[in-house]
Amino acid sequence: MLTVDFTRFPLAPGDRVLDLGCGGGRHAFECYRRGARVVALDQDAGEIAEVGKWFAAMAEGGEVPPGASAEAVVGDALALPYPDGHFDAVILSEVMEHVPDDKGLIAEAARVLRPGGRIAVTVPRYGPEKVCWWLSDAYHEVEGGHIRIYRGGELLARIREAGLRPYGTHHAHALHAPYWWLKCAFGVDNDKALPVRAYHRLLVWDIMKKPLLTRAAEQALDPLLGKSFVAYATKPHRAAPVAAAGDAEPA
């Protein structure tokens, strides 16, 4: 299940791509399939070990084109071990809401992006996320949980403050918002509740089969219920001006 739309975030074979805070590696795997030279970085050593195993399995299974490479790295997103301008593209998906120093995080991502390169940043969308917080304290009051909710304009302001230039936004995963509302209503650790189990089966079916009905429904509902807000930006060859306070798009 990809949050980044690669038609809006094009990659060329051989591009150096950093999936920063990669988690389970879903975007890193897609970049690898597209022929990129991928670095998947996260502070969770357990997840990175699994990502590394999947990279190896993909290579052995012939899923990647010649010239592609992939590396799974344990690291600190606020102190990346790469020189300025090292990557052609950076993905920062569902990470900003976890990090106290979000300004430092986006600044570090911008530092390692080359001038002319692209960055994709995704966060939980304000409306659906606010419902989750209202329904359940346990949803966000956990170690490593969500510590803030962004409005769209707030995220774009962070991106601009880092010297990046946004070029597009959209919402994603409308079908997933009700699932998390059910999880919060019945207990975030209660996977046995019938409504939660039934909706989970629907999501698995949708992800595996991609039926036209659910794909069309999600596309229609994304502007209203999309659980993720996705922003794309480029790094200009010279510093972009910081936007005025009123220059903000709605969530």
From TrEMBL:
The keyword Transferase applies. Keywords: Methyltransferase, Transferase. Residues 18-120 form the Methyltransferase type domain. It comes from the Bacteria. InterPro entries: Methyltransf_11 (IPR013216), SAM-dependent_MTases_sf (IPR029063). GO terms for biological process: methylation. Coiled coil: none annotated. GO terms for molecular function: S-adenosylmethionine-dependent methyltransferase activity. This is Methyltransferase domain-containing protein. The lineage of its organism: Bacteria, Bacillati, Actinomycetota, Actinomycetes, Kitasatosporales.
